[in-house]
Every structure is written in structure tokens, then in C-alpha cells.
Amino acid sequence: MSLTTESGTIDYEKLYIGGEWASPHTTDVIPVHSATTEERVGSVPEGSPADIDAAVAAARRAFDDPTGWRTWSPEQRGEVLERFAAALEARGAETARRVTIQNGMPIGVAMMFEAGFPALLLRYYSGLVAAHGEERRQGMLGKQSLVLREPLGVVGAIVPWNAPPGHLVPQGRPGARGGQHGRP
Question: Of 14, 58, 81, 94, which has the maximum CB count within 10 A?
């Protein structure tokens, strides 16, 4: 839920929690400025502890859903990650433009790392269909180890302000591919 104002800024009034846009628990706003020009280019709501609690609770509900992500086959999860990659690619040019405006990254670098890299990683993770179930490995001292890839719970990640797409995918998606769940 973003609004483009007459001045061309992008101002977000809500937080994305639990698969929907939610009003924040405070009216505090963080202005976003261009690192290059110092011009105000937008704003975002300042999340509060109550907003964090709401996001964690939503992720927990999603994880505990008996028909949800953790119960899907690795192939189903891989298909979702593939669709996510395609959606990121479709928005790649706009993502790169916004990153360039916000933090001054050269547009060519932003196209490579903020528009292209996340989709590339998602496709890599979606292709790891063979890395599921159980695996027996040779352990130390001649014993065997049993490796199980099972969902463990909700993952939280703090993403740096200056490269969200490029940092978000490596933090959360390998676990999601294996069955863990979190909402970025």
C-alpha cells in the first residue's frame, strides 16, 4: 500500500504483516532521504514493539497452520519460490530505480544485485528439491549420522537499510526452502 504524492515521493502508511497491510501501532514516521541529494524521497511507518509482536504472532500462526507451508512438499515450496523469483524479476527495474534513489547505488549495480541477485538465489533454492527428507552421512569415528530436514519454527531477520532485496533473500529463503517459515 504505497502512495505516490505530487512531489514524486513514495510514502508508505502501513506495515505488511501476516499477508496484509496493517496500520502501525504508532503514528511515528521515518523519513527516507536520497543518499545522493539528501532530498526527501519518501517515508515509512516506524515499527513499534507491538508491531514486531504482531508480525511474530502472524508468522507463528502461519507456521502452525496444519495446511500451511511447513506441511507442503519440497516441490510445492520450490514452485512458490519460483513464482516469487518471477515476481521479483517483473519488478526488477523499479526496485533498482528505488534503491538507486534511496542509497545512491549506481543503477547498473542495483540492476545486478538488487533486481537480479534475489531472483537468482530464489531459483537456486527452488532447485534444491533433492535436499529434503533424511540423509545418512558418514560420521566421525566410523559412526553414521542421520540428517533430517524438518521445519523448526519462525525465523526473524533484521535487514540493513541500504540493500534490502539483496540481503533479504539469503537470510530467509534457505530455511523456507527446507520447510521453515517466516514473513519478510
Answer: 81
pLDDT at 7: 54
Question: Which residue positions in the chain have pLDDT lower than 50?
Answer: 1-6, 173, 177, 179-184
Compute the mean pLDDT over every residue in the chain, rounded to the nearest whole number. Answer: 80
Q: Report the pLDDT value the prediction gives residue 17, as an integer from 0 to 100.
A: 93
Which pLDDT belongs to residue 67?
93
Alpha helices (runs of H) in the chain, residue ranges in sequence order: 49-64, 74-90, 92-103, 107-110, 117-126, 164-178
State phi, psi for 131 to the nearest 5 degrees.
-90, 60
User: Three-class SS of residue 21?
Assistant: strand
Q: How far apart are CA 43 and CA 96, in angstroms?
A: 18
pLDDT score at 91: 93
For residue 175, CA distances in Å to 13, 57, 91, 138, 154 come to 30, 18, 24, 24, 10
For the beta carbon of residue 160, count every other beta carbon within 10 angstroms. Answer: 10
First to last CA, the chain: 16
- Burial annotation 78-91 (CB, 10 A radius, 16+ → b, else e): beebbebbeebbee
